[in-house]
Amino acid sequence: MPDGRRQIVQIHHPGDIVGLPDVAFKVASTTLRTAEDIILCPFPKKDLDIVFRESPKLTALLFSLALREHALLLDSLRMMGRMDARERLSYFFLDLLSKLRITNKSMRSTIRLPLNQTEIGDYIGLTNVYVSRSLLAMEDEGMIRRGENVLTVLQESEMARLCDFQNRYAEIDTSWFPQ
User: Fold this and answer.
1) Could you give the number of structural domains in the chain?
2) What's the order of all strands across the beta sheet hosting 144-147?
3) Is residue 55 part of a domain?
């Protein structure tokens, strides 16, 4: 933000298409900062016309991914507007876990979490003090276990019920894609 504050609006993982929402604009609406070293594979948007002309199935997939991002944004607005701290953290952890399971089917319930409490708070709209208190409460209740840059979800079903979590990553319907 111009005054030096920051808001984290998206967290990317391996395989993500970074910047897809900005394809429609000449200037990007966000900046990318990384918590760890990454490898990016640039794809100039001017080359999308080739994809759109020559691969209707890939075009449908890109369209579906954009629609999923829209649904996730609506979920995030609901999370920020109507959920308390435990519900927000539950949603955040389940969302991360679900997204990481796309590329790691054997993943159980432990995730690497290289974000500090301030960064988590910037993403879910809470102060780092509130995040800290809520994480301690969730640990005391046996919902999660934390280690250094690692978090284990111990009560996934209970957390999903608590925040009415819907796994948007496992629910893409491709039945309408062109053959």
Assistant:
1) 1
2) 110-112, 150-153, 144-147
3) yes
